[in-house]
Design goal:
The complex is a heterodimer of chains A (231) and B (282). Chain A is built from 8 helices and no strands. With 231 residues, chain A is an all-alpha fold. In chain A, helix 3 packs antiparallel against helix 7, helix 4 packs antiparallel against helix 6 and helix 5 crosses helix 8. Chain A is elongated. In chain B, the strands form 2 sheets. Chain B has a 6-stranded mixed β-sheet with strand order 6-7-8-3-9-10, sandwiched between helices. Chain B has a 4-stranded antiparallel β-sheet with strand order 2-1-4-5, with helices on one face. Chain B is of the alpha/beta class and 282 residues long. In chain B, 36% of the residues lie in helices and 24% in strands. The chains are: A mainly alpha (231), B alpha/beta (282). Chains A and B meet through helix 3 of A and helix 9 and helix 11 of B.
Chain lengths: 231, 282
Protein backbone atom coordinates (compact mmCIF):
# COMPACT_ATOMS: atom_id res chain seq x y z
CA UNK A 1 0.00 0.00 0.00
CA UNK A 2 1.38 3.40 -0.95
CA UNK A 3 0.63 5.92 1.78
CA UNK A 4 0.42 9.63 0.98
CA UNK A 5 3.55 11.62 1.77
CA UNK A 6 4.19 12.44 5.41
CA UNK A 7 4.38 16.13 6.32
CA UNK A 8 7.90 15.35 7.55
CA UNK A 9 9.99 14.03 4.69
CA UNK A 10 12.51 12.63 7.15
CA UNK A 11 9.84 10.37 8.60
CA UNK A 12 9.14 8.76 5.22
CA UNK A 13 12.90 8.36 4.69
CA UNK A 14 13.39 6.74 8.10
CA UNK A 15 10.47 4.39 7.60
CA UNK A 16 11.71 3.44 4.12
CA UNK A 17 15.23 2.80 5.48
CA UNK A 18 13.81 0.56 8.20
CA UNK A 19 11.78 -1.39 5.68
CA UNK A 20 14.74 -1.74 3.31
CA UNK A 21 16.88 -3.16 6.09
CA UNK A 22 14.16 -5.70 6.92
CA UNK A 23 13.98 -6.73 3.27
CA UNK A 24 17.76 -6.98 3.02
CA UNK A 25 17.83 -9.09 6.18
CA UNK A 26 15.09 -11.33 4.79
CA UNK A 27 17.07 -11.76 1.56
CA UNK A 28 20.24 -12.71 3.43
CA UNK A 29 18.31 -15.08 5.67
CA UNK A 30 16.70 -16.79 2.69
CA UNK A 31 20.12 -17.15 1.06
CA UNK A 32 21.58 -18.62 4.27
CA UNK A 33 18.83 -21.19 4.51
CA UNK A 34 19.25 -22.14 0.85
CA UNK A 35 23.02 -22.44 1.22
CA UNK A 36 22.79 -24.48 4.41
CA UNK A 37 20.43 -27.00 2.83
CA UNK A 38 22.41 -27.10 -0.42
CA UNK A 39 25.56 -27.65 1.64
CA UNK A 40 23.80 -30.56 3.34
CA UNK A 41 22.35 -32.13 0.18
CA UNK A 42 25.42 -31.56 -2.01
CA UNK A 43 27.84 -32.34 0.83
CA UNK A 44 29.48 -28.99 0.20
CA UNK A 45 31.48 -27.71 3.18
CA UNK A 46 32.14 -24.35 1.55
CA UNK A 47 28.45 -23.53 1.37
CA UNK A 48 28.08 -24.58 5.01
CA UNK A 49 31.00 -22.34 5.97
CA UNK A 50 29.55 -19.41 3.99
CA UNK A 51 26.24 -19.81 5.82
CA UNK A 52 27.99 -19.73 9.19
CA UNK A 53 30.04 -16.68 8.16
CA UNK A 54 26.97 -14.75 6.91
CA UNK A 55 25.26 -15.04 10.28
CA UNK A 56 27.32 -12.16 11.66
CA UNK A 57 25.97 -9.76 9.02
CA UNK A 58 22.40 -10.81 9.78
CA UNK A 59 22.99 -10.31 13.51
CA UNK A 60 24.27 -6.79 12.83
CA UNK A 61 21.22 -6.01 10.70
CA UNK A 62 18.96 -7.11 13.54
CA UNK A 63 20.69 -4.65 15.85
CA UNK A 64 20.47 -1.92 13.22
CA UNK A 65 16.74 -2.47 12.70
CA UNK A 66 16.10 -2.36 16.43
CA UNK A 67 18.12 0.84 16.75
CA UNK A 68 16.38 2.47 13.78
CA UNK A 69 12.98 1.37 15.09
CA UNK A 70 13.63 2.86 18.52
CA UNK A 71 14.90 6.04 16.85
CA UNK A 72 11.68 6.36 14.87
CA UNK A 73 9.54 5.75 17.96
CA UNK A 74 11.55 8.34 19.85
CA UNK A 75 11.72 11.01 17.17
CA UNK A 76 8.34 10.75 15.49
CA UNK A 77 6.02 8.92 17.93
CA UNK A 78 4.21 7.22 15.04
CA UNK A 79 0.60 6.08 15.42
CA UNK A 80 -1.88 3.85 13.58
CA UNK A 81 -0.46 2.06 10.51
CA UNK A 82 2.92 3.77 10.93
CA UNK A 83 3.22 2.48 14.48
CA UNK A 84 2.21 -1.01 13.39
CA UNK A 85 4.78 -0.98 10.61
CA UNK A 86 7.60 0.01 12.97
CA UNK A 87 6.62 -2.50 15.64
CA UNK A 88 6.21 -5.26 13.05
CA UNK A 89 9.58 -4.48 11.47
CA UNK A 90 11.27 -4.82 14.85
CA UNK A 91 9.49 -8.09 15.60
CA UNK A 92 10.25 -9.39 12.11
CA UNK A 93 13.96 -8.74 12.50
CA UNK A 94 14.02 -10.87 15.63
CA UNK A 95 12.34 -13.77 13.82
CA UNK A 96 14.62 -13.39 10.80
CA UNK A 97 17.66 -13.53 13.06
CA UNK A 98 16.37 -16.75 14.59
CA UNK A 99 15.71 -18.29 11.18
CA UNK A 100 19.30 -17.39 10.26
CA UNK A 101 20.42 -19.08 13.50
CA UNK A 102 18.55 -22.22 12.43
CA UNK A 103 20.30 -22.03 9.04
CA UNK A 104 23.63 -21.80 10.85
CA UNK A 105 22.77 -24.83 12.96
CA UNK A 106 21.78 -26.77 9.82
CA UNK A 107 25.12 -25.77 8.24
CA UNK A 108 27.02 -27.01 11.30
CA UNK A 109 25.11 -30.30 11.28
CA UNK A 110 25.74 -30.52 7.53
CA UNK A 111 29.49 -30.20 8.03
CA UNK A 112 29.37 -32.99 10.58
CA UNK A 113 27.36 -35.21 8.22
CA UNK A 114 29.77 -34.47 5.39
CA UNK A 115 32.60 -36.14 7.32
CA UNK A 116 30.82 -39.49 7.09
CA UNK A 117 29.42 -41.58 4.24
CA UNK A 118 26.21 -40.17 2.73
CA UNK A 119 22.86 -41.22 4.17
CA UNK A 120 19.94 -41.93 1.87
CA UNK A 121 17.61 -40.70 4.63
CA UNK A 122 18.66 -37.12 3.91
CA UNK A 123 15.79 -37.27 1.39
CA UNK A 124 13.40 -37.15 4.36
CA UNK A 125 14.55 -33.55 4.90
CA UNK A 126 13.63 -32.36 1.39
CA UNK A 127 9.82 -32.07 1.76
CA UNK A 128 10.29 -30.38 5.11
CA UNK A 129 12.72 -27.89 3.64
CA UNK A 130 10.43 -27.12 0.70
CA UNK A 131 7.48 -26.62 3.03
CA UNK A 132 9.41 -24.47 5.52
CA UNK A 133 10.96 -22.36 2.76
CA UNK A 134 7.61 -21.77 1.06
CA UNK A 135 6.15 -20.72 4.42
CA UNK A 136 9.03 -18.33 4.97
CA UNK A 137 8.83 -16.79 1.48
CA UNK A 138 5.06 -16.42 1.66
CA UNK A 139 5.22 -14.88 5.11
CA UNK A 140 7.62 -12.24 3.77
CA UNK A 141 5.38 -11.71 0.73
CA UNK A 142 2.43 -11.22 3.08
CA UNK A 143 4.47 -8.58 4.94
CA UNK A 144 5.65 -6.78 1.81
CA UNK A 145 2.25 -6.78 0.11
CA UNK A 146 0.28 -6.36 3.35
CA UNK A 147 -1.66 -9.44 2.25
CA UNK A 148 -3.85 -10.54 5.15
CA UNK A 149 -5.23 -13.60 3.34
CA UNK A 150 -1.78 -14.94 2.51
CA UNK A 151 -0.59 -14.27 6.08
CA UNK A 152 -3.46 -16.31 7.51
CA UNK A 153 -2.78 -19.11 5.02
CA UNK A 154 0.86 -19.33 6.10
CA UNK A 155 -0.18 -19.65 9.74
CA UNK A 156 -2.50 -22.50 8.80
CA UNK A 157 0.34 -24.37 7.06
CA UNK A 158 2.52 -24.76 10.17
CA UNK A 159 0.70 -27.86 11.34
CA UNK A 160 1.66 -29.79 8.20
CA UNK A 161 5.31 -28.97 8.81
CA UNK A 162 5.02 -30.27 12.37
CA UNK A 163 3.53 -33.48 10.99
CA UNK A 164 6.30 -33.85 8.40
CA UNK A 165 8.90 -33.38 11.13
CA UNK A 166 7.23 -35.94 13.35
CA UNK A 167 7.08 -38.51 10.54
CA UNK A 168 10.73 -37.95 9.61
CA UNK A 169 11.82 -38.21 13.25
CA UNK A 170 9.96 -41.52 13.67
CA UNK A 171 11.58 -42.94 10.55
CA UNK A 172 15.03 -41.78 11.61
CA UNK A 173 14.62 -43.25 15.09
CA UNK A 174 13.63 -46.55 13.49
CA UNK A 175 16.72 -46.39 11.30
CA UNK A 176 18.86 -45.77 14.39
CA UNK A 177 17.66 -49.06 15.81
CA UNK A 178 18.28 -50.86 12.51
CA UNK A 179 21.66 -49.30 11.80
CA UNK A 180 23.31 -48.19 15.06
CA UNK A 181 26.63 -47.49 13.31
CA UNK A 182 25.06 -44.42 11.70
CA UNK A 183 23.45 -43.25 14.90
CA UNK A 184 25.28 -39.88 14.91
CA UNK A 185 24.25 -39.24 11.32
CA UNK A 186 20.57 -39.99 11.97
CA UNK A 187 20.71 -37.85 15.08
CA UNK A 188 22.11 -34.95 13.05
CA UNK A 189 19.28 -35.33 10.54
CA UNK A 190 16.74 -35.27 13.38
CA UNK A 191 18.30 -32.00 14.54
CA UNK A 192 18.14 -30.60 11.00
CA UNK A 193 14.45 -31.54 10.87
CA UNK A 194 13.88 -29.79 14.17
CA UNK A 195 15.62 -26.66 12.82
CA UNK A 196 13.28 -26.62 9.82
CA UNK A 197 10.30 -27.10 12.08
CA UNK A 198 11.50 -24.02 14.03
CA UNK A 199 11.87 -22.10 10.74
CA UNK A 200 8.17 -22.82 10.19
CA UNK A 201 7.38 -21.45 13.65
CA UNK A 202 9.27 -18.23 12.92
CA UNK A 203 7.61 -17.94 9.50
CA UNK A 204 4.30 -18.25 11.33
CA UNK A 205 5.32 -15.41 13.65
CA UNK A 206 6.28 -13.27 10.65
CA UNK A 207 2.95 -14.00 8.98
CA UNK A 208 1.10 -13.05 12.16
CA UNK A 209 3.06 -9.80 12.37
CA UNK A 210 2.33 -9.15 8.69
CA UNK A 211 -1.40 -9.46 9.38
CA UNK A 212 -1.08 -7.14 12.38
CA UNK A 213 0.84 -4.58 10.32
CA UNK A 214 -1.77 -4.72 7.58
CA UNK A 215 -5.00 -4.49 9.53
CA UNK A 216 -4.19 -4.35 13.28
CA UNK A 217 -5.66 -7.79 13.87
CA UNK A 218 -3.86 -9.99 16.38
CA UNK A 219 -4.21 -13.55 15.05
CA UNK A 220 -1.64 -15.16 17.34
CA UNK A 221 -2.58 -18.31 19.23
CA UNK A 222 -5.55 -19.04 16.99
CA UNK A 223 -3.79 -21.50 14.68
CA UNK A 224 -6.49 -24.15 14.93
CA UNK A 225 -9.20 -21.70 13.95
CA UNK A 226 -7.12 -20.34 11.11
CA UNK A 227 -6.23 -23.84 9.90
CA UNK A 228 -9.92 -24.69 9.87
CA UNK A 229 -10.90 -21.54 7.98
CA UNK A 230 -8.12 -21.74 5.39
CA UNK A 231 -8.31 -25.49 4.68
CA UNK B 1 -30.09 14.03 39.04
CA UNK B 2 -30.51 17.73 39.58
CA UNK B 3 -33.08 19.38 37.42
CA UNK B 4 -31.62 22.15 35.29
CA UNK B 5 -34.90 24.04 35.20
CA UNK B 6 -35.79 23.94 38.85
CA UNK B 7 -32.48 24.60 40.45
CA UNK B 8 -31.30 28.03 41.46
CA UNK B 9 -27.77 29.09 42.31
CA UNK B 10 -28.64 28.78 45.98
CA UNK B 11 -29.87 25.23 45.51
CA UNK B 12 -27.02 24.11 43.33
CA UNK B 13 -24.07 25.43 45.25
CA UNK B 14 -24.89 27.19 48.52
CA UNK B 15 -27.49 24.75 49.80
CA UNK B 16 -25.49 21.75 48.81
CA UNK B 17 -22.38 23.09 50.53
CA UNK B 18 -24.10 24.20 53.67
CA UNK B 19 -25.92 20.92 54.02
CA UNK B 20 -22.65 19.10 53.88
CA UNK B 21 -22.77 18.03 50.23
CA UNK B 22 -23.98 14.49 50.80
CA UNK B 23 -23.26 12.16 47.89
CA UNK B 24 -26.23 11.62 45.60
CA UNK B 25 -28.21 8.40 46.05
CA UNK B 26 -27.26 5.51 43.78
CA UNK B 27 -30.29 6.00 41.57
CA UNK B 28 -29.27 9.60 40.93
CA UNK B 29 -25.75 8.86 39.81
CA UNK B 30 -25.02 10.09 36.28
CA UNK B 31 -25.87 7.71 33.45
CA UNK B 32 -23.11 6.26 31.33
CA UNK B 33 -23.44 9.17 28.91
CA UNK B 34 -23.07 12.70 30.22
CA UNK B 35 -23.75 14.42 26.90
CA UNK B 36 -25.89 13.26 24.03
CA UNK B 37 -25.34 15.53 21.06
CA UNK B 38 -27.70 15.02 18.15
CA UNK B 39 -27.41 16.64 14.73
CA UNK B 40 -25.60 19.69 16.07
CA UNK B 41 -24.95 22.42 13.50
CA UNK B 42 -23.55 25.83 14.38
CA UNK B 43 -23.21 28.91 12.21
CA UNK B 44 -21.19 32.06 12.80
CA UNK B 45 -23.16 34.44 10.61
CA UNK B 46 -23.32 32.68 7.23
CA UNK B 47 -20.40 30.38 7.94
CA UNK B 48 -21.22 26.90 9.14
CA UNK B 49 -18.67 25.86 11.79
CA UNK B 50 -20.27 22.57 12.86
CA UNK B 51 -22.13 20.33 10.46
CA UNK B 52 -24.67 17.84 11.84
CA UNK B 53 -22.53 16.32 14.54
CA UNK B 54 -23.99 13.46 16.54
CA UNK B 55 -21.87 12.25 19.42
CA UNK B 56 -22.33 10.80 22.91
CA UNK B 57 -19.81 11.70 25.59
CA UNK B 58 -19.16 9.10 28.26
CA UNK B 59 -19.43 9.92 31.93
CA UNK B 60 -16.34 9.97 34.13
CA UNK B 61 -14.03 9.50 31.19
CA UNK B 62 -11.79 11.75 29.15
CA UNK B 63 -12.88 12.50 25.62
CA UNK B 64 -10.32 14.20 23.38
CA UNK B 65 -11.33 16.21 20.36
CA UNK B 66 -8.67 16.42 17.68
CA UNK B 67 -8.52 17.92 14.23
CA UNK B 68 -6.74 20.59 12.21
CA UNK B 69 -7.17 24.30 12.93
CA UNK B 70 -10.59 25.57 11.95
CA UNK B 71 -12.26 22.16 12.01
CA UNK B 72 -14.78 23.23 14.64
CA UNK B 73 -13.45 21.41 17.66
CA UNK B 74 -13.36 24.48 19.94
CA UNK B 75 -16.79 25.56 18.71
CA UNK B 76 -18.12 22.10 19.54
CA UNK B 77 -16.54 22.26 22.99
CA UNK B 78 -17.94 25.71 23.70
CA UNK B 79 -21.39 24.58 22.56
CA UNK B 80 -21.36 22.03 25.39
CA UNK B 81 -21.77 24.85 27.91
CA UNK B 82 -23.31 27.43 25.57
CA UNK B 83 -20.21 29.62 25.64
CA UNK B 84 -20.32 29.94 21.85
CA UNK B 85 -23.45 32.04 22.32
CA UNK B 86 -21.21 34.84 23.61
CA UNK B 87 -20.00 35.27 20.02
CA UNK B 88 -22.35 37.57 18.05
CA UNK B 89 -24.46 36.19 15.17
CA UNK B 90 -24.20 32.60 16.34
CA UNK B 91 -26.94 30.14 15.43
CA UNK B 92 -27.29 26.55 16.52
CA UNK B 93 -29.47 23.64 15.43
CA UNK B 94 -29.81 20.18 16.94
CA UNK B 95 -29.96 19.07 20.55
CA UNK B 96 -27.49 18.74 23.38
CA UNK B 97 -28.65 16.71 26.35
CA UNK B 98 -26.73 16.97 29.61
CA UNK B 99 -27.66 13.94 31.69
CA UNK B 100 -30.86 13.68 29.71
CA UNK B 101 -31.87 17.37 29.99
CA UNK B 102 -31.92 19.65 26.97
CA UNK B 103 -29.23 22.30 27.49
CA UNK B 104 -30.82 24.55 24.90
CA UNK B 105 -34.41 24.44 26.15
CA UNK B 106 -35.90 27.91 26.44
CA UNK B 107 -36.31 27.54 30.18
CA UNK B 108 -32.63 26.90 30.78
CA UNK B 109 -30.43 29.64 32.19
CA UNK B 110 -27.05 29.58 30.37
CA UNK B 111 -25.34 30.82 33.54
CA UNK B 112 -26.42 27.66 35.36
CA UNK B 113 -25.25 25.54 32.46
CA UNK B 114 -21.81 27.13 32.65
CA UNK B 115 -21.62 26.48 36.36
CA UNK B 116 -22.41 22.81 35.88
CA UNK B 117 -20.11 22.55 32.90
CA UNK B 118 -16.87 24.30 33.80
CA UNK B 119 -14.24 25.41 31.35
CA UNK B 120 -10.47 25.76 31.34
CA UNK B 121 -8.90 27.76 28.54
CA UNK B 122 -5.73 27.54 26.48
CA UNK B 123 -4.13 30.46 28.29
CA UNK B 124 -4.41 30.55 32.04
CA UNK B 125 -6.54 33.51 33.08
CA UNK B 126 -6.46 34.10 36.83
CA UNK B 127 -8.11 37.37 37.83
CA UNK B 128 -5.14 39.73 38.02
CA UNK B 129 -6.39 41.82 40.91
CA UNK B 130 -7.18 38.82 43.12
CA UNK B 131 -5.05 36.67 45.37
CA UNK B 132 -4.57 32.95 44.84
CA UNK B 133 -7.26 32.21 47.44
CA UNK B 134 -9.71 34.76 46.05
CA UNK B 135 -9.29 33.37 42.57
CA UNK B 136 -10.37 29.92 43.71
CA UNK B 137 -13.49 30.92 45.63
CA UNK B 138 -14.68 33.77 43.43
CA UNK B 139 -17.25 31.50 41.77
CA UNK B 140 -18.70 30.58 45.15
CA UNK B 141 -18.75 34.18 46.33
CA UNK B 142 -20.55 35.26 43.16
CA UNK B 143 -23.09 32.54 43.94
CA UNK B 144 -23.75 34.02 47.34
CA UNK B 145 -21.66 31.80 49.59
CA UNK B 146 -20.58 33.90 52.59
CA UNK B 147 -19.79 31.23 55.16
CA UNK B 148 -16.04 31.68 55.63
CA UNK B 149 -15.57 28.17 57.04
CA UNK B 150 -17.16 26.68 53.94
CA UNK B 151 -15.14 28.92 51.67
CA UNK B 152 -11.93 27.89 53.40
CA UNK B 153 -12.84 24.23 53.20
CA UNK B 154 -13.70 24.51 49.53
CA UNK B 155 -10.55 26.53 48.86
CA UNK B 156 -8.32 23.80 50.28
CA UNK B 157 -10.31 20.97 48.71
CA UNK B 158 -10.23 22.56 45.25
CA UNK B 159 -6.53 23.34 45.43
CA UNK B 160 -5.81 19.80 46.61
CA UNK B 161 -7.85 18.34 43.74
CA UNK B 162 -5.94 20.57 41.35
CA UNK B 163 -2.68 19.23 42.85
CA UNK B 164 -1.69 22.78 43.80
CA UNK B 165 -2.29 22.95 47.55
CA UNK B 166 1.18 21.89 48.64
CA UNK B 167 2.76 24.46 46.35
CA UNK B 168 0.63 27.48 47.29
CA UNK B 169 -0.74 26.85 50.79
CA UNK B 170 1.64 29.45 52.25
CA UNK B 171 1.05 31.94 49.42
CA UNK B 172 -2.73 32.12 49.34
CA UNK B 173 -2.60 35.87 49.88
CA UNK B 174 -0.25 36.49 46.95
CA UNK B 175 -1.60 37.58 43.57
CA UNK B 176 -2.74 34.71 41.37
CA UNK B 177 -0.60 36.09 38.59
CA UNK B 178 2.54 35.65 40.74
CA UNK B 179 2.39 31.88 40.15
CA UNK B 180 4.21 30.12 37.32
CA UNK B 181 2.34 29.39 34.06
CA UNK B 182 1.66 25.79 35.01
CA UNK B 183 0.54 26.77 38.50
CA UNK B 184 -1.75 29.45 37.07
CA UNK B 185 -3.37 26.86 34.83
CA UNK B 186 -3.93 24.54 37.80
CA UNK B 187 -5.29 27.54 39.72
CA UNK B 188 -7.83 27.99 36.92
CA UNK B 189 -8.71 24.31 37.18
CA UNK B 190 -9.14 24.72 40.95
CA UNK B 191 -11.39 27.73 40.28
CA UNK B 192 -13.48 25.59 37.92
CA UNK B 193 -13.66 22.75 40.47
CA UNK B 194 -14.67 25.02 43.36
CA UNK B 195 -18.25 25.39 42.11
CA UNK B 196 -18.61 21.62 41.89
CA UNK B 197 -19.26 21.21 38.18
CA UNK B 198 -20.26 17.89 36.66
CA UNK B 199 -18.18 18.36 33.56
CA UNK B 200 -14.89 20.07 32.84
CA UNK B 201 -14.22 21.29 29.34
CA UNK B 202 -10.60 22.02 28.49
CA UNK B 203 -9.57 23.95 25.40
CA UNK B 204 -5.92 23.08 24.74
CA UNK B 205 -5.09 23.38 28.46
CA UNK B 206 -1.39 22.57 28.05
CA UNK B 207 -0.49 24.30 24.80
CA UNK B 208 1.22 27.21 26.60
CA UNK B 209 3.01 25.06 29.18
CA UNK B 210 6.44 23.44 29.41
CA UNK B 211 6.72 19.61 29.52
CA UNK B 212 6.85 19.42 33.32
CA UNK B 213 3.82 21.65 33.82
CA UNK B 214 2.10 19.72 31.01
CA UNK B 215 2.82 16.43 32.77
CA UNK B 216 1.27 17.78 35.99
CA UNK B 217 -1.89 18.86 34.17
CA UNK B 218 -2.08 15.50 32.40
CA UNK B 219 -1.74 13.65 35.70
CA UNK B 220 -4.39 15.91 37.15
CA UNK B 221 -6.76 15.13 34.27
CA UNK B 222 -6.15 11.43 34.91
CA UNK B 223 -6.99 11.89 38.61
CA UNK B 224 -10.05 14.06 37.97
CA UNK B 225 -11.72 11.66 35.59
CA UNK B 226 -12.76 9.42 38.45
CA UNK B 227 -15.08 12.24 39.57
CA UNK B 228 -15.74 14.32 36.49
CA UNK B 229 -16.56 13.96 32.85
CA UNK B 230 -13.77 15.69 30.95
CA UNK B 231 -13.79 16.86 27.36
CA UNK B 232 -10.56 18.28 26.05
CA UNK B 233 -9.49 19.84 22.78
CA UNK B 234 -5.87 19.25 21.87
CA UNK B 235 -3.54 19.64 18.93
CA UNK B 236 -1.07 17.32 20.60
CA UNK B 237 -1.75 13.84 19.25
CA UNK B 238 0.52 12.16 21.77
CA UNK B 239 -1.29 13.93 24.57
CA UNK B 240 -4.65 12.77 23.24
CA UNK B 241 -3.24 9.23 23.16
CA UNK B 242 -1.96 9.50 26.72
CA UNK B 243 -4.85 11.07 28.55
CA UNK B 244 -8.07 10.22 26.77
CA UNK B 245 -10.37 7.23 26.80
CA UNK B 246 -12.26 8.30 23.68
CA UNK B 247 -11.19 10.39 20.74
CA UNK B 248 -13.26 12.32 18.23
CA UNK B 249 -11.69 13.51 14.98
CA UNK B 250 -13.26 16.60 13.42
CA UNK B 251 -12.61 17.93 9.94
CA UNK B 252 -14.32 20.86 8.20
CA UNK B 253 -16.95 20.99 10.93
CA UNK B 254 -17.84 17.33 10.59
CA UNK B 255 -17.25 14.45 12.96
CA UNK B 256 -15.20 12.09 10.83
CA UNK B 257 -14.60 9.37 13.40
CA UNK B 258 -15.25 8.73 17.07
CA UNK B 259 -14.19 5.75 19.15
CA UNK B 260 -11.95 4.40 21.89
CA UNK B 261 -8.60 6.19 21.80
CA UNK B 262 -6.68 2.92 21.48
CA UNK B 263 -8.66 2.05 18.38
CA UNK B 264 -8.32 5.51 16.81
CA UNK B 265 -4.56 5.55 17.36
CA UNK B 266 -3.82 1.99 16.29
CA UNK B 267 -6.39 1.22 13.63
CA UNK B 268 -8.70 4.08 12.67
CA UNK B 269 -11.59 3.15 10.42
CA UNK B 270 -11.51 6.28 8.27
CA UNK B 271 -8.70 7.14 5.88
CA UNK B 272 -8.97 10.85 6.74
CA UNK B 273 -8.38 10.01 10.41
CA UNK B 274 -5.41 7.82 9.53
CA UNK B 275 -3.92 10.52 7.30
CA UNK B 276 -4.37 13.19 9.96
CA UNK B 277 -2.99 11.31 12.94
CA UNK B 278 -0.06 9.89 10.99
CA UNK B 279 0.85 13.32 9.65
CA UNK B 280 -0.17 12.79 6.04
CA UNK B 281 -2.94 15.32 5.88
CA UNK B 282 -3.73 17.66 3.05
Amino acid sequence: MIAPKHILGTFDESLAALRNNVLMMAGLTERSLERAIKGLFDRNDELCAATIADDEEIDQLEKQIDKDGVDILLRFQPVASDLRRVVSAMKLSSNLERIADQATTIARRGRKLNRHPPLAEVELIKPMYEHAMSMFKDSMDAFVREDVKLGCEVVGRDEKLDDLNQDASHKLVERMAEDPDQLRGYLNLIFVGRCLERVGDHATNIAEDAVYAANAEDIRHQSQTIAATTS
Amino acid sequence: MENLVMETPEQTVLERLEKGAAPPPEAELPPARTFEVKNMSIWYGEKRAIDKVTLDIASKAVTAIIGPSGCGKSTFLRALNRMHELTPRTRMEGTVLLNGKDLYASTIDPAIVRRRVGMVFQKSNPFPTMTVGENVVIGLRLNGVRNQKLLNERLEKSLRMAALWDEVKDDLHKPGTSLSGGQQQRLCIARALAVEPEVILMDEPCSALDPIATAKIEELIYELKSKYTIVTVTHNMQQAGRISDYTAFFYLGRLIEFGPTTKIFTNPSEKQTEDYITGRFG
